[in-house]
Design goal:
The complex is a heterodimer.
Chain A lengths: L3 E4 L2 E5 L4 E7 L3 E9 L5 E7 L2 E5 L2 E6 L4 E6 L8 E9 L9 E3 L3 E6 L1
Parallel strand pairs in A: 2-11
Antiparallel strand pairs in A: 1-3, 3-8, 4-5, 4-9, 6-7, 7-8, 9-10, 9-11
Chain B lengths: L3 E4 L2 E4 L5 E7 L5 E7 L6 E8 L2 E4 L6 E3 L9 E3 L8 E8 L9 E2 L3 E5 L1
Parallel strand pairs in B: 2-11
Antiparallel strand pairs in B: 1-3, 3-8, 4-5, 4-9, 5-6, 7-8, 9-10, 9-11
The chains are: A mainly beta, B mainly beta.
Chain lengths: ~110, ~110
């Protein structure tokens, strides 16, 4: 079993829909990253969070440390949101954080017009 | 401010050849990383560095070498290319972990070994 599991693996949505991508992990962490990768393109960092919730435009990321779970929400989805969304966790406690990240395999999102 | 720059973007190698993937960042980040991304798999850490002169192995270091002579540069060397090294390689950098430990990635280098 992977230490970081994402669901769903593939997601197709209609433009305007509310989208949720989930990330569960089995290790203790000091922070969690959400990344976006467009087809054939590079990887962009969307959020880094260690507690609570963060919002940037139409994107919202939440994390529940006790339940070892994070969600990435996209409101009013648009075809340009089509990409692979990757969850990555940084292991260890904050004071003893390691430098290594464990990555999920990604969620492929396709938003159709 | 260019961020993280990787070269080349594409390369085809024959088995046994050697090459170096270049990575440069202009954000004065201490931490730099090399990852490989294989189809259907999460990114795997090859090597990382927490500062000039300091490097350490990641999960999949075999067949690779790195050096970090300056803060800006973190080249990845493949000495004897093998088909198993066909992958997309990403260099990344970040400031020291903390409240602003955001990751910055290069555009990726697609390597094919035939």
């Amino acid at each position: 079993k992977n230490e970081v599991e994402q669901s769903p693996q593939n997601l197709t949505a209609q433009e305007g829909e509310f989208i949720t991508i989930n990330c569960s992990y089995s290790v203790g962490i000091s922070a969690l990253h959400w990344l976006q990768q467009h087809p054939g393109g590079g990887i962009v960092s969307l959020f880094m969070l260690s507690s609570g919730k963060k919002k940037h435009g139409r994107l919202i990321a939440t994390i529940n440390i006790q339940e070892k779970h994070s969600s990435l929400h996209i409101t009013a989805s648009h075809p340009r949101d089509s990409a692979v969304y990757i969850c990555a966790v940084r292991g260890g406690t904050y004071g003893g954080a390691t430098n290594k990240l464990i990555f999920g395999t990604g969620t492929l999102l396709a938003v159709q017009p | 401010n260019a961020g993280v720059t990787q070269t080349p973007k594409f390369r085809i190698l024959k088995i046994g050849q050697s090459m170096t993937l270049q990575c440069t960042q202009d954000m004065n980040h201490n931490y730099m990383y090399w990852y490989r991304q294989d189809p259907g798999m999460g990114l795997k850490l090859i090597y990382y560095s927490v500062g000039a002169g300091i490097t350490d192995k990641g999960e999949v270091p075999n067949g690779y070498n790195v050096s970090r002579s300056t803060t800006e540069d973190f080249p990845l060397r493949l000495e004897l290319a093998a088909p198993s090294q066909t992958s997309v390689y990403f260099c990344a950098s970040s400031p020291p972990w903390g409240a602003k430990g955001e990751l910055f990635f290069g555009e990726g280098s697609r390597l094919t070994v035939l």
